[in-house]
Specification:
The chain has 487 residues and is an alpha/beta fold. The chain has 21 helices and 14 strands. Helix 14 crosses helix 19. 27% of the residues are buried.
């Protein structure tokens, strides 16, 4: 090893002194840092091991040193301080215990003169093997609180993008399920051998996105398995409809649709049993997003995701211009990737769409209202911090299935403005939905002039509205029931 603790006020040159002793001592061979295999190889060439540490330290530690276990694994006897932890491991009669440095000197002198008696240490190691720890400690801990007579469900989650289902996956593990992921590309599995193995193993299959993954599993389902798939929005788009036509619906227990207007559209488009399509909304962690110290006076607007064109960046810019004609304190923060960050946006079929974005960028640079009022903030894995610095969140899209920006933003205390895309007034209160840019600006200006107390009261009301509809505590039981209930 090469770990030497830092110097201290009582020994300010400790590191330098130790380094010198290790390098220059005539009775020490210092190998320095080596990997685990090399360390075991070196230990196996010696007669006796040194695991002695200060009695003061050993009396206070709660740690069983892995160094002891490594010696046991190759049956190499070692000197070690006596304490409760080491006695529980080695037994009270272990012959190479010492309590202090005087006993250490006596023991080493004895070993030098009389040699080292053979001793079998390997049997002591059994409770500390990975297999033993897994079976006797970790598994009982993980299953604590669950009915021991119920065998845990085996669940496969298969999909091309699992960002919207990760928290539910954790929930399934928390209630005792064994969960395995099967990652897919948009139109094919990443690794078909894994998929074929998992379809044999699974009892319950959750397809996140009703795309190639759902079509394949519905056509390859085994007896006594249950398949539930979750359909968002892109699945009813023209490009993805081929997968819906390839579904073997007799093998599908339920298709969960994240918005009622999307469910109704799917019923129109596909020849499916209507009873198999159920609406269960997306979920959010409203308590985690909540900002207890919200500054409601912020005139900063947030929009998350402006790709593809249907997200309507142009309307967001129209709104900002309208607001800044009255008050130049307003600004816009654009969160997420831009079109050139997506390889699929560079395809020939997207050429006109890229021109649309070029037009918006030019507009930002040339407009006297926009130039210094638009901030581009790139993609990050977490988004909580983004909502904290806003006062308003907007959804100017042509169409959406749910739009997390509104639910997350409201949970964080922001004022919501939603354009009238289909289904918006079913997912969110009607008063959050505006007609056009001018009515959006009017609503935001009116809100910004309310007294602080009234704005804070509205923050609480909107938070409760979102929490009662979409919080994990509300939605997870619905999803769990859909997955595990009888057909």
């Amino acid at each position: 090893g090469d770990k030497v603790h830092r110097s201290s006020p009582s020994h300010p040159t400790f590191r330098q002194d130790m380094d010198k002793m290790l390098r220059e001592s005539p009775v020490v061979t210092w190998h320095g840092a080596v990997d685990r295999d090399k360390a075991v190889e070196l230990l196996a060439g010696y007669d006796f091991g040194w695991c002695y540490r200060s009695g003061w330290f050993e009396k206070k530690t709660l740690e069983l040193s892995t160094k002891l276990l490594e010696h046991l694994a190759i049956n190499l006897p070692f000197v070690v301080s006596r304490n409760n932890i080491n006695e529980n491991l080695l037994g009270h009669e272990y012959p190479f215990f010492v309590d202090n440095e005087d006993e250490l000197d006596i023991l080493l002198e004895k070993l030098l003169n009389k040699g080292i008696d053979e001793i079998n240490l390997k049997g002591i190691l059994a409770p500390h093997l990975i297999s033993s720890v897994r079976t006797n400690i970790l598994k009982p801990l993980l299953m604590e609180g669950f009915d021991k007579h119920i065998r845990p469900h085996r669940v496969v989650i298969a999909g091309t993008d699992l960002k919207f289902v990760g928290q539910f996956e954790s929930h399934l593990k928390r209630i005792g399920c064994i969960v395995r992921r099967d990652l897919w590309e948009w139109g094919e599995p990443q690794f078909i051998q894994r998929t074929k193995a998992l379809v044999k193993w699974a009892e319950f299959i959750w397809c996140e996105w009703n795309l190639a993954n759902a079509a394949w599993y519905s056509n390859n389902l085994k007896e006594n398995q249950q398949l539930v798939s979750r359909l968002h929005l892109q699945e009813i788009g023209e490009r993805a409809r081929k997968f819906q036509h390839n579904m073997k619906m007799d093998n599908v227990k339920k298709i969960i649709v994240v918005a009622e207007h999307v469910r109704l559209e799917a019923i129109k488009l596909f020849d499916w049993d209507e009873e198999k399509l159920i609406f269960i909304p997306n979920f959010i962690e409203s308590e985690r997003m909540k900002n207890e110290h919200k500054n409601t006076s912020l005139k900063k607007i947030g929009i998350v995701g402006v790709v593809p064109e249907r997200k309507r960046l142009d309307l967001a810019l129209d709104l900002l211009e309208e607001l800044r004609k009255t008050d130049d304190e307003w600004s816009l923060v654009i969160k997420g990737k831009l079109p050139h960050d997506y390889p699929w946006m560079l395809a020939d079929s997207r050429r006109m769409e890229l021109k649309y974005y070029d037009k918006q960028y030019k507009r930002i640079k040339t407009s006297k209202y926009l130039g210094d009022a638009v901030e581009f903030e790139g993609y990050t894995l977490t988004i909580t911090e983004f909502f904290i610095k806003l006062g308003y969140v907007i959804s100017p899209s042509d169409f959406e299935s749910f739009h997390y920006t509104i639910a997350d933003g409201v949970s964080a205390g922001n004022f919501p403005v939603i354009w009238p895309w289909e289904g918006a007034d079913g997912l969110y209160p009607r008063e959050w939905v505006i007609k056009d840019v001018k009515s959006a600006a009017k609503a935001m200006l009116t809100h910004s002039h309310l007294p602080e107390k009234e704005r804070l009261e509205q923050v609480e009301e909107r938070f409760e509205e979102v929490r009662s509809r979409y919080d994990v505590e509300v939605v997870f039981p619905q999803l769990t029931d859909a997955l595990f209930s009888e057909r």
